[in-house]
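Protocol step 4 of 6: structure prediction from sequence.
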Amino acid sequence: MELDLAFIWAILIAFAVLAYIILDGFDLGIGILFPFLKNTSQRDVAMNTVAPIWDGNETWLVLGGGGLFAVFPLAYAVIMPALYAPIIAMLLGLIFRGVAFEFRWKANTSKVVWDWSFTIGSFVAAFAQGIALGALVQGIDVADRAYAGGWWDWLTPFSITTGIAVVIGYTLLGATWLIAKTEGEIQEQAYAWAWTAGIGLIVMIGIVSFWTPFLNAVYMQRWFAFPAILYAAPVPLLVVATAYSLFKGLEMRRELQPFLSALALFVLCFIGLGIGFYPYMVPHSITIWQAAGPDSSLLFLLVGALVLLPLILAYTAYSYWVFRGKIREGEGYH
């Protein structure tokens, strides 16, 4: 049986993007929550909860972007010109927050500057990711295998809405991460933030889910036409169940359940996107197979991926295991 290399690579890149979203999302969320922490000591604790793992989380972004360039060059050549502005803003935000992350530990009189730099960089990165997602969902104009739209096509009411949704979602991930990793006053604050962000995220999921089918007839068919509705219907039902798990965990003051429920919400939203996108790499113009490179290149790269992916997964799991447990004031890894 011949392997469908393009499909396999589409799954791998989708996995890398999802891994980045759920792993880097909570430390971006901590950056967004930074101004709401009461003092420097609390901010040190919050930052120490992600200090050993934050840069490793961004490995998945490199894998997703690099994989798109190497394996689906046509999709890369179309998507990048369409999303230059939000992608550049995202990268600048990530660089800015990375620099702030390191510099604030060394600074004395300028620590407040780096605190705000960390917050602004985190917010810009999260908002830009959401805008890029919204611009991709609403569709990219393609003609003769090239981007045919304008410079500002990415900036629409829908993309701004998805940008806000991602910021709120990352805030929820950050708050629930702090619930799991801290105790005392910080944890109590995090419970309150998680309630607010959780309600906000559910509202934004509802708005975006209602809006999306009206962007393109393909989405309407995928979600409401028979028999596609049989595959799509479980997703909103699972979202409701997961939302219940999130708020029940917060109400019962459980520590890990809210974080796992927040992660599950992101996974379900990602699955919903996959249902709407498939089989397109650039909705709804270029399919996975049209965008893929030659099979010889895909096979060569797949061999390397099969070696590297288990190593990355093992390293990630090991780092989370080593640095498990609570972070308390006066303690840290940095």
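Step 5 (inspection) to follow. The first helix runs from residue 5 to 33.
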